[in-house]
């Protein structure tokens, strides 16, 4: 039972991280109609920035806080130099150009930070268990990730549904010609949205960093998961991204935790240990295929 | 009285709160040119889309030659002999004019699961294609890419493609849209030559053309058919005059 | 073979013909290159075999992407399936190529039928993502196959045996396999050429150009798209079977999504919807991958020499430090890709004159 609660919390934590990554992706996709494969690179840069700033300031928290504006700056540069030129092109062009960006990003990181992975040391107060109930310890850091993730999700919800900027964003995501008609500086809005996406991706990356090790290409596989999430949720829908991210986080975590024991009942231990993570990854793609075959624009999607 | 070829029975199509087709009934008789007129937003193009299978009605029935085709996909309707042209020119722009009509002929001849012989060297496709271009007066542009044709020529090609399917009923969605007077006159000429040989349901804003060509006219207002009759009857119809012809300019 | 080449009177035709002759005769002049110290014969043949095989895969992708307008982001999955079919059969002692290859092609066709039947119901980016999802699904199947090496893959101890016709060791093996790959590529090009110009191809290309119009003409477009999807999958499965023989190794990495991305890059780099475009693209992409570091080193040496002559050597660091930058050649490759997308959309093929329609 304790295991189940712990794994459920891990699932929520992974889901929230995935949501941060997916939220930026779905906004950029919904508003600018840009398929940005390099979104995962922003995630990676967030982690590397944080690693450097943490080493520099000796504080993970300050390092993280410094990494966010750095990621914003990077996002704005990428938007102005490359992404902006792609908005009017077709999806195939997006795929190619941002695929090129991934190659550049990975080698650039290797050039600046070297080929080896990095670990971000946690301060002592984050590096100990917190007791949710007297007999239920849970890593403080993971709990902090849940708190921050949930806070940012609420902030996004507030931003999108309660503010003027959010109104433009919603208008843009559902009907792109409309924002032009509203007399808004569209270029600036696009740059801001892209920058916001970069910050969210970097936040996800730097929060994941102490758990997974910072390494080159760390964004490549998780990016595909983020795409799966926004496609399941329906492109442009923050709500859809949130729900799908939670489902995916749960499937992945619980699958990895529970499947080995289940598989061991009819497979060898070695085979079960190899098959279980693969199977839980497969379940996510099966879910997406199922959703799309059932509803061709995702759970909350309006257009294709 | 000629037999009914197409019968539309209390067709309804809603978009959200807007009723685009409002329990509309209509019949097109074999051999006639039946014109559909009405102010903008009357639901003419929506109706064509439902008749040709690109939109599913919410309720009602469409019968073609006594067969219920309400649920049939577009391609299957063409094979039964019901083909359409588009209001917004919809030709295959990367292909030559001849390729465009030859493709229509290819579809007419049955499935295209033929993987080896070159289609462009196939006389059984090219000859009828050339004939179709000849018929609309485009023979001299046969080998030019459709994208390079003038607007009027593309409209002619549009009609040639619909005709090359050898339909028994031709749905023409504003064939004269965006044409100059000279091009319009040529199109009216073309349609007049087709008259009697093909049954046509014609949507058109150009009233001169409509009254010159149509055997019968149906007037659509807000998705409803408010009157059907000969041109003379329609001209005399009080309801039509107030709802439609009375307006200064239909646009 | 007539009709495969563009007329030799055009530059386009001449360049293509020259390229095919150069590729076809490589085994015969490679020893000279070796003797002249330009490139080792074995290395040249091995590298170019890989180019030919991936060109076959790219040509198959071009059938659906370039001619059919279907952006499949999971095409490498058929390379994987073709490869695993050969590898798994070899692992169990079945070496007969006349069994392995038809099975590899047939299974790939079946997989394409299943993926296509589900994916082709969606449009746009949902189609891209669905094809990607199915490919990732199979990728994780590969990862989960503990019996066949899981993540680490599986070494193939013996290549496919075609009634003992192919040499099994030494340079002869490499030369023979190069020739086989070249012949298969030419046959595939010929097949695709016939397909896209036949009625089927006209229907497919019309569907890419304007699907609504094609339906209005009476084409059941879904069926033609699906058929093309299956044919492309089958051809790519063949490429996978060849690749497994070439590398004598299979692993899930063969079907990772970035491999599918590579194939798209090859097709677009070469020129979509032109018969030889994917071949140019495969050559350009794989040779860039292979030689870009050396090329960069050359450029950096020049630059360093020039600048140090002006500013003095001490000011700009040692040549060694500069040359180390060449390790980061992917930055240059990525930049080239972005520049091609932004400024040279027709691909390499368009540089040789107006793309021919067919």
From TrEMBL, chain A:
State the superkingdom.
Answer: Bacteria
Gene Ontology annotations of biological process type: amino acid transport
- According to the record, the segments passing through the membrane are 12-30, 37-56, 62-83, 95-113, 141-160, 188-216, 222-248, 269-294
Q: How does it sit in the membrane?
A: Multi-pass membrane protein
> What molecular function terms (GO) are annotated for this protein?
transmembrane transporter activity
Mind telling me which InterPro entries this protein's record contains?
ABC_transp_permease, BCAA_transport_permease
Q: Which CDD domains match?
A: TM_PBP1_LivH_like (cd06582)
Q: Name one GO cellular component term.
A: plasma membrane
Coiled coil spans: none
Q: Name one Pfam family in it.
A: BPD_transp_2
- Compartment(s) where it occurs, according to its Swiss-Prot or TrEMBL record: Cell membrane
- Keywords, comma-separated and alphabetical: Amino-acid transport, Cell membrane, Membrane, Transmembrane, Transmembrane helix, Transport
Q: Which family does it belong to?
A: Belongs to the binding-protein-dependent transport system permease family. LivHM subfamily.
Q: What is this protein called?
A: Branched-chain amino acid ABC transporter permease
Automatic annotation (TrEMBL), chain B:
Instruction: Name the SMART domains on file.
Output: AAA
> Which InterPro entries does the UniProt entry name for this protein?
AAA+_ATPase, ABC_AA/LPS_Transport, ABC_transporter-like_ATP-bd, BCA_ABC_TP_C, P-loop_NTPase
Q: Give the top-rank taxon of the lineage listed in the UniProt record for this protein.
A: Bacteria
Q: Does the keyword ATP-binding apply?
A: yes
Question: For the ABC transporter domain, which residue ranges apply?
Answer: 6-247
Protein known as? ABC transporter ATP-binding protein
SUPFAM superfamilies in the record, alphabetically? P-loop containing nucleoside triphosphate hydrolases (SSF52540)
The organism is Vineibacter terrae
| Listed GO MF terms | ATP binding; ATP hydrolysis activity
**Cellular compartments per GO CC:** plasma membrane
What keywords are assigned to this protein? ATP-binding, Nucleotide-binding, Transport
UniProtKB/TrEMBL annotation, chain C:
Location(s), subcellular: Cell membrane
**Which keywords annotate this record?**
Cell membrane, Membrane, Transmembrane, Transmembrane helix
Q: Which topology term describes how it sits in the membrane? A: Multi-pass membrane protein
Q: Does the keyword Membrane apply?
A: yes
Q: Which InterPro entries match?
A: ABC_transp_permease, LivM-like
Q: Give a Gene Ontology cellular component term annotated to this protein.
A: plasma membrane
Give me the segments passing through the membrane. 45-65, 72-92, 98-118, 125-142, 175-196, 217-243, 263-288, 295-316, 328-348
- Protein name (Swiss-Prot/TrEMBL): Branched-chain amino acid ABC transporter permease
**Organism for this UniProt entry:** Vineibacter terrae
Species lineage: Bacteria, Pseudomonadati, Pseudomonadota, Alphaproteobacteria, Hyphomicrobiales
């Amino acid at each position: 039972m304790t295991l189940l609660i712990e794994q459920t919390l891990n699932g929520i934590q992974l889901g929230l991280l995935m949501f941060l990554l997916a939220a930026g992706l779905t906004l950029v996709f919904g508003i600018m109609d840009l398929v940005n494969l390099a979104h995962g690179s922003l995630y990676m840069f967030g982690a590397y920035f944080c690693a450097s700033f943490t080493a520099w300031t000796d504080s993970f928290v300050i390092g993280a806080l410094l990494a966010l504006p750095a990621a914003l700056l990077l996002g704005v540069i990428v938007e102005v130099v490359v992404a902006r030129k792609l908005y009017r092109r077709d999806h195939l062009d997006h795929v190619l150009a941002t695929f090129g960006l991934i190659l550049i990003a990975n080698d650039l990181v290797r050039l600046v930070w070297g080929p080896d992975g990095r670990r971000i040391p946690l301060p002592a107060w984050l590096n100990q268990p917190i007791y949710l109930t007297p007999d239920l310890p849970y890593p403080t850091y993971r709990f902090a990730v849940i708190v921050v993730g949930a806070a940012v999700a609420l902030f996004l919800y507030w931003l999108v549904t309660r503010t003027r900027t959010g109104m433009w964003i919603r208008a843009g995501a559902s009907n792109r010609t409309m924002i032009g008609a509203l007399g808004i500086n569209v270029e600036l809005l696009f740059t801001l949205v892209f920058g916001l996406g970069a910050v969210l991706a970097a936040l996800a990356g730097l929060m994941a960093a102490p758990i997974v090790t910072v390494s080159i290409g760390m964004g490549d596989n998780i990016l595909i998961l983020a795409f799966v999430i926004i496609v399941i949720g329906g492109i442009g829908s923050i709500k859809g991204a949130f729900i799908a991210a939670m489902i995916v986080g749960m499937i992945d975590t619980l699958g990895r935790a529970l499947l080995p024991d289940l598989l061991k009942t009819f497979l060898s231990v070695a085979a079960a240990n190899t098959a279980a993570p693969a199977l839980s990854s497969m379940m996510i793609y099966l879910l997406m295929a199922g959703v799309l075959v059932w509803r061709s624009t995702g759970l909350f999607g309006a257009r294709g | 009285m000629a037999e009914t070829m197409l019968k539309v029975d209390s067709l309804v199509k809603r978009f959200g709160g807007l009723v685009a087709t409002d329990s509309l009934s209509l019949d097109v008789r074999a051999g006639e040119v039946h014109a559909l007129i009405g102010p903008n937003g009357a639901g003419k193009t929506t109706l064509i889309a439902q008749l040709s299978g690109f939109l599913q009605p919410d309720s009602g029935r469409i019968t073609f030659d006594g067969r219920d085709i309400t649920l049939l996909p577009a391609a299957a309707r063409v094979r039964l002999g019901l083909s359409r042209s588009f209001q917004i020119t919809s030709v295959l722009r990367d292909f030559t004019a001849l390729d465009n009509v030859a493709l229509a002929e290819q579809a007419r001849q049955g499935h295209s699961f033929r993987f080896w012989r070159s289609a462009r060297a196939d006389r059984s496709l090219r000859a009828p294609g050339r004939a179709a271009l000849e018929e609309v007066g485009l023979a001299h542009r046969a080998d030019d890419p459709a994208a390079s044709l003038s607007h009027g020529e593309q409209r002619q090609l549009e009609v040639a493609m619909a005709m090359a399917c050898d339909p028994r009923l031709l749905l023409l969605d504003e064939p004269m849209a965006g044409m100059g007077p000279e091009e319009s006159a040529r199109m009216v000429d073309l349609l007049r030559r087709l008259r009697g040989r093909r049954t046509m349901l014609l949507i058109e804003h150009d009233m001169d053309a409509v009254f010159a060509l149509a055997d019968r006219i149906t007037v659509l207002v807000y998705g409803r058919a408010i009157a059907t009759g000969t041109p003379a009857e329609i001209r005399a119809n009080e309801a039509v005059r107030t709802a439609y012809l009375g307006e200064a300019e239909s646009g | 073979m007539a009709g495969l080449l563009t007329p030799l009177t055009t530059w386009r035709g001449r360049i293509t013909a020259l390229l095919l002759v150069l590729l076809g005769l490589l085994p015969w002049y490679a020893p000279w290159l070796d003797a002249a110290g330009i490139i080792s014969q074995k290395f040249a043949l091995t590298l170019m075999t890989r180019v030919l095989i991936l060109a076959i895969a790219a040509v198959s992708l071009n059938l659906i992407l370039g001619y059919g307008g279907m952006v499949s982001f999971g095409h490498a999955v058929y390379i994987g399936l073709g490869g695993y079919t050969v590898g798994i059969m070899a692992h169990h002692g079945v070496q007969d190529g006349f069994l392995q290859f038809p099975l590899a092609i047939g299974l790939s066709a079946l997989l394409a039928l299943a993926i296509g039947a589900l994916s082709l119901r969606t449009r746009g980016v949902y189609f891209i993502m669905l094809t990607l999802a199915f490919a990732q699904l199979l990728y994780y199947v590969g990862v989960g196959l503990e019996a066949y090496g899981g993540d680490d893959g599986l070494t193939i101890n013996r290549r496919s045996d075609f009634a003992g016709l192919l040499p099994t060791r030494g340079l002869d093996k490499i030369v023979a396999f190069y020739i086989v790959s070249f012949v298969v590529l030419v046959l595939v090009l010929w097949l695709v050429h016939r397909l896209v110009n036949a009625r089927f191809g006209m229907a497919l290309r019309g569907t890419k150009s304007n699907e609504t119009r094609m339906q209005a003409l009476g084409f059941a477009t879904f069926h033609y798209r699906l058929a093309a999807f299956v044919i492309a999958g089958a051809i790519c499965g063949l490429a996978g079977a060849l690749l497994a023989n070439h590398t004598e190794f299979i692993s899930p990495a063969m079907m990772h999504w970035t491999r599918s991305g590579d194939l798209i890059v090859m097709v677009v780099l070469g020129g979509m919807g032109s018969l030889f475009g994917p071949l140019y693209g495969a050559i350009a992409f794989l040779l860039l991958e292979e030689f870009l570091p050396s090329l960069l080193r050359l450029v950096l040496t020049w630059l360093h020499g020039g600048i140090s002559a002006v500013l003095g050597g001490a000011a700009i660091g040692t040549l060694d430090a500069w040359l180390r930058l060449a390790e980061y050649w992917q930055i240059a490759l990525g930049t080239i890709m972005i520049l091609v997308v932004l400024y040279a959309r027709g691909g390499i093929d368009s540089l040789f004159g107006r793309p021919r329609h067919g």
